[in-house]
Amino acid sequence: MIYLLAGNPNVGKSTFFNFMTQSHVHVGNYSGVTVEKRVHHVKHYEGANLVDLPGTYNVSPSSQDEGIVTYSLLNESYNGVVNIIDSTHLRRNLHLTVQLLELGVPSMLVFNLKDALKNNGYVIDIDKVKDRLKVNAISISARDRQNEDQKQIASEMQNLRITKALELDYDPIIKWGLQRIHDLLRYDVIQVKKKWLALQILEGNEGTFKFLDLVKEEKIREVVKEVEDRIIEAKVAFSLKGAIFNTRREFINNLVEECLIKVEEKEHSKYFNQKIDRIITHPKFGIPIFFIIMLAIYQVSFGTFLGVGNFLTTYFEIGWNDYLVYYLGQALEFLGLTGFMYGLLIDGIMGGIGGILVFLPQIIVLFFMLAVLEGTGYMARVAIVMDRFLSKFGFNGKSIVPIITGFGCTVPAIMATRTIADKKERILTILTIPFISCSARLPIYGIFTSLFFDEYRAIIILGLYLLGIMVTLLSAKFLNLTYFRGSGSKFLLEVPPYRIPQLRTITYQALEKAKRFVKKAGTFILVGSMILWLLSNIGMDGININPEESFLSNIAGFIAPIFNPLGFGDWQATSSLISGVLAKEVVVSSLNILYVGDIAAGFTTLSALTYIVFASLYVPCIATIATIKSETGSLKWTVFSVIYPFVIAYLVALSVNLIFGIFL
Amino acid sequence: MNITDLNKKEVAKIISLSDIDKLFTKRLMDLGIYESATVVMLNKLSSNRLYIIEVDDVEICLRKEDAEKIEVKK
Ligand SMILES: Nc1nc2c(ncn2[C@@H]2O[C@H](COP(=O)(O)OP(=O)(O)O)[C@@H](O)[C@H]2O)c(=O)[nH]1
Ligand SMILES: [Mg+2]
């Protein structure tokens, strides 16, 4: 049994999904968080699977992620649709509901955010809704995870009424068009009701043509054109879509008037929002406030003053080096394992992984705080504050979500660009996002700042982040002026209400990031460290050689001179950068292995600075490159995404070397 | 008059959307911004470059150049 989960963006679909299936997909208080569909089985309902779809306002798609929803409804087999509705925004949410009910498949309406609605002083008369729409319905707070709610939903899902398709009283011209199209569809075999499809076609749902190969497509398009002309001529509305929309809105308004009941007079939370918003999005102070918040977050994660992350890392480091590695070393010696094997295990594997794992506490602290920020709804305000800025560089307003996601990991960030409808703008965003510093680059900043710039850690790390943002913006501008000329950017943002984030969700999100980090340490970094240690300890003359004669030294030493102008042209630094393409964390593991724990000896203050600058911008990791390939479907752009950052990183690092060479 | 002419907390009805491309009209409509919808001006931000309006209980942020194309009547 398969049930599709449909609903507008940011209404709690993922929260509901997690609640019903006991899983943990990402929840965030802004639109566009889920761009792929996910499947999981429903608790208390043997054999049933729930599919979490991306949010959509409409059955007809305006971007790729919304296309997934149309596709699923048209082509996939399912036993029912569960429609999640934000009870505090009924008038907008119900447009999708109406379209789903017009489809006439077994459905269930879940009116979510009951708690927030109650805070506004309202309740929904569920019995009336059921009666008016002839459909199963329930009012809940998915976030509160009530056991009874879950049981009731699971049991109702098993007995969904086969609904009679909802029929609204559209304008006679539209009804005439529906009949004509319905006739033209008689040659097609389609799983959905043809009447519904006809209406979707009239509405301009291009997905119907894209996903179904209709026999009379030409003729159908002609009818649509004719109906549209007649609607405009008869002054029913400004467009055909508008005429349909208006009929639905009228229906919805009546429904809401009947079913939404005021129980208490409350001052609307909007005015509360406005006061905070005026400060947070202030034209002068908005951006400084954002930077102060970010600086505070980085200070707590990496700084020494108030540095929770740093404090935890110190203890973690002691535990790792003085206990785990120490006793492991003792054990190996006891077993008589010395020399080559001892080196591989202790210096290679433990050194490589340890160099990365010490950053785990800092990463957890950082992501915990970012998750809090995300959960409150502040990120949407950041989009507002940054809009003027972003638009100057040719970014689409919707690019902000991928950009913010990019601070975590570039791969999901690139996938999040699916919400951008315009193809050119989407590729532009994909190509520039890898410059945003992802969390994998943090260990590189961490290690170098702690060795060379201890007092200025938070500032330098924030500076590297700002550099990444600047390069992203300037690259967008550059691409916009050259190749992507004239893709005008639009901005339209739904402002979510402020919400108090749930500790449970936030903790989970931070731990999820930590889990990924540890997993990467156990796989990519483990293998990378092993290979690197082996290559640096084996040479033409066999094993146990002077590293200067190793294979690695010979290969990397050949390339290294190109980094001489940047100040770090030795084979160790070069090999680390090469291996970093595997995963950015590997840079640190490699440095630890190749400089045998003493990275400070390999760099000067200046070359350390140019090195982190270069490492923050150069070639993306393999996973990113593969994602760019699959998302753009273009070899040309994939190659570009490898070469372009290398050139940029080189130029920026060179400038840093020249400029700071004066002071340092 | 268009949306940008409204003062804070003023309410008006949308009468037309002129000169907006099809794709963007669709996105506006997705959020409920269409003729005969009621709008409330909630806030003007960024030195009157951005407008926060309310349509059907939803708060939406628009740029000035787009807001200017939405004709309203009080
Ligand atoms: N107050 C309240 N907030 C909720 C409820 N369900 C979800 N949320 C919040 O709504 C926001 C959007 O949730 P999410 O599941 O990511 O929505 P999606 O975009 O539809 O998947 C998050 O900030 C949630 O914490 C609820 O029942 N009550
Ligand atoms: Mg979601």
Residues in helices of chain A, as a percent range: 55-70%
Please state how the strands of the largest beta sheet of chain A are arranged side by side. 2-3-1-4-5-7
**Residue ranges of chain B: pLDDT <50 for 5 or more in a row?**
none
- Find the count of extended strands of chain B (DSSP E, 2+ residues): 5
**CATH architecture grouping of chain B:** Roll
- Radius of gyration of chain A (CA) equals 29 Å
Report the β-strand fraction of chain B as a percent range: 35-45%
Instruction: State the major sheet of chain B.
Output: 5 strands, antiparallel
Q: In sequence order, what are the helices and strands of chain B, one letter per element?
A: EHEEEHE
Largest sheet of chain A: 6 strands, mixed
By DSSP (H or I, 4+ residues per run), the number of helices of chain A equals 29
Oligomeric state of shown chains: heterodimer
Enumerate how many helices of chain B there are, as a single number.
2
CATH fold type of chain B:
SH3 type barrels
For the residues shown, what is the average pLDDT of chain A? Answer: 86
Unreliable residue runs of chain A: none
Could you say how many structural domains of chain B there are in total?
A: 1
Distance between the termini of chain A: 67 Å
Which cofactor or ligand species appear? guanosine-5'-diphosphate, magnesium ion
